[in-house]
Design goal:
The chain has 365 residues and is α/β, with parallel strands linked by helices. It has two domains: 118 residues, 3-Layer(aba) Sandwich (Rossmann fold); 193 residues, NAD(P)-binding Rossmann-like Domain (Rossmann fold, 3-Layer(aba) Sandwich), CATH 3.40.50. It has 15 helices and twelve strands. The strands form two sheets. Strands 1, 2, 3, 4, 5 and 6 form a six-stranded mixed beta sheet that branches. Strands 9-8-7-10-11-12 form a six-stranded parallel beta sheet, with helices on both faces. Strand 8, helix 8 and strand 9 form a beta-alpha-beta unit. The longest helix is centred in the C-terminal third of the chain and has 33 residues. The protein binds nicotinamide-adenine-dinucleotide. The site of nicotinamide-adenine-dinucleotide (NAD) has 25 residues, from helix 6 and helix 7.
Length: 365
Amino acid sequence: MNSFAKQVEMGHEQVVFCHDRATGLKAVIAIHDTTLGPALGGTRMWDYANESDALFDVLRLSRGMTYKAACAGLNLGGGKAVIIGDAKKIKSEALFRAFGRFVNSLGGRYITAEDVNVNVNDMEWCASETNYVTGISSRPGGSGDPSPVTAWGVFHGIKAAARHRLGKDSLKGMKVAVQGAGAVGKYLCGYLSEEGAQIFISDIDSVKTKAMADKFGAKILDGQQIFSADVDVFAPCALGAIINDETLPMLKCPIIAGGANNQLLDENKHGNILKDKKILYAPDYVINAGGLINVYNELRGYNAEVARKQAASIYNTLLQVFEDADKQGISTHAASNIFAERRISAVRAVTAFKHTYDNQSWIRR
Ligand code: NAD
């Protein structure tokens, strides 16, 4: 399929291919939908096998951002950028400044941030050329590390799932298995511990699991044990695609609710299997929106308390998604997609009316 056909099929507004002769920069910026606001999403650097892979990745990721922002109630659209190349070899100030100039040329339709292989320093270079950057520390009002806010949203998402599936308002005494003791996982363990949950932890890094055991009394599980653990909640906070044909038969938990991106290997197939097995799945892009909520607040004048409060409202959004899924007999993932699309359509209708009205009032004058 050619690039335009893909763009049309996935509903993207604009895809920009960027090339800088001096630095060799090759990047693609994809703006999926700006109905709700400017398209915000990070820049990923990856050594793609070919250009089609890069294009497919940026189209998929930017569309995901549209749905994440819509469900989180933010006035943001979905966008993403990829820079093609090996991060260990091609990174330089000149390259990121060249990229920043391309971001700037879009006049704020796309706002960038860090993503895989792109860090705060890289974004500082980018910010030398454009104001359309979030998540940097050098400017006053920078929001810093989003992980605590992401984990705070995940914590409230777990509480919503426990309310809906188990009829419980507190996680006290509940068994929660956290996969990944990284930035999100470790903060989540802290919140769970404060609430009195019993924590099970796995990570490929034994220093990190030991820290969780020492600090929160977490029981350490090995890589495979985490899937078959007899727990109330499985909270994936490491890799994507961990709900698949292999792991599904192992699961004993009634709830999957964690911060990792793209947890379902196949959204439709594995979302439906979870529904049939009566395992309540908190759609990843709904429950892990705290990080996006955090940078959104940076655009409006950062206030940590406001950001945390908004992240906590993921509780209500998830309850609505779970109810919608039950009512319609569909997977929670399908229900959250519909939830997002409903908001975008409603706002689009208002915007269309406003444009018509504005045009008419102009004609009258
Ligand atoms: P991180 O790199 O800090 O932590 C990931 C952890 O997972 C690491 O400790 C790593 O050792 C561990 N890990 C890797 N493979 C593993 C395996 N097979 N089994 C167990 N543990 C394994 O990353 P993070 O920022 O905590 O993000 C975790 C997930 O949450 C990612 O999927 C990320 O995309 C998603 N996410 C993060 C944020 C955020 O604010 N950081 C926001 C939204 C989504």
